[in-house]
Specification:
Rossmann fold, six-stranded parallel sheet
Length: 280
């Protein structure tokens, strides 16, 4: 049995349109979804079996042998007041990293055992995308004013190439994310110079798109290393638009879907089960 402990996800209203969107999505993806899939517990009053603690504020419920999923904790120095500092004081506690680059970074900082478990993608049903009559690019992400400005500029540039553009900043459920990917042909992430060399960043958006057979065009980032060769690397907005136009001739969707299977929840769940088995 595995028990997951995490801050409960909660909804807030988007100030622009009054629609709800979720905060603390990581608690759902790396906590509740896995717990439900493997028959574990999510935020029980008393933990049963192995404990997985997602970015805990305190270590009092973390037992030796349990795992702390540090998620995107950005502390670069081991100080007592930081999550990594608290973990470092408990070398018999294990740590979960989100990417191979994240794992290597943590191994340089912590004396603890580190294991790599990536995010599962959202496409549990293995839905395949159908190409639209008008090629459509899309961006999904948390709302930030700068992101909206970039998306507006990208929409204008893509339109000149005969490509439609849509964005999604509010997605209260997994089904909303699925509908978004069913509405696009190409995923674009137009954030240049943003978290480029940050090991806590991860490839989940790229893998979500891959699972539908959808290619992604974006800047190369350290956190994308595990999917090198499965997305199109560009260095500027103009290159992004140029590569999108080239994709009017098509792409190898099957290759993307095959690789994304590594990140299907059924395979990611086995990694968590292996943690439990290793404690036996």
């Amino acid at each position: 049995m595995i028990s997951f402990f995490a801050k409960e996800p909660f909804s807030v209203l988007d100030s622009r349109d009054g629609k709800p969107y979720l905060k603390r999505i990581s608690s759902i993806v790396r906590g509740k979804q896995i717990a439900d899939y493997i028959g574990g517990k999510f935020n029980p009053k008393e933990g049963e079996g192995l404990g997985i603690h997602l970015k805990p504020l305190k270590m009092d419920r973390v037992k030796d042998g349990d795992y702390v999923d540090v998620l995107d904790d950005t502390a670069v120095h081991i100080k007592l007041g930081t999550l990594l500092g608290r973990v470092a004081k408990r070398p018999k506690v294990n740590v979960i990293a989100m990417t191979s680059a994240h794992k290597e970074w943590l191994e340089r900082l912590l004396p603890n055992k580190i294991v790599h478990i990536p995010h599962q993608h959202m496409n549990f049903e293995r839905i395949r995308s159908e190409r639209h009559k008008q090629l459509t690019c899309g961006y999904i992400g948390t709302y930030v004013g700068r992101h909206e400005e970039l998306c507006n500029a990208l929409e204008t540039q893509l339109a000149r190439g005969g490509i439609k553009f849509v964005s999604l900043f509010t997605y209260p459920s997994r089904e909303d994310i699925i509908k978004f990917y069913q509405s696009i042909d190409i995923q674009v992430i137009p954030m240049f110079g943003y978290l480029t060399n940050v090991p806590q960043y991860h490839e989940k958006k790229i893998v979500d798109a891959m699972s539908f057979g959808i290619p992604t065009i974006t800047e190369e980032k350290l956190g994308y290393r595990d999917v090198n060769g499965y997305y199109i690397k560009v260095n500027s907005m103009s290159e992004l638009v140029s590569e999108a136009v080239k994709l009017k001739d098509g792409w190898d969707a099957e290759r993307l879907i095959t690789k994304a299977e590594d990140y299907h929840i059924s395979n990611i769940a086995e990694k968590y089960k292996a943690l439990c088995n290793s404690q036996s």
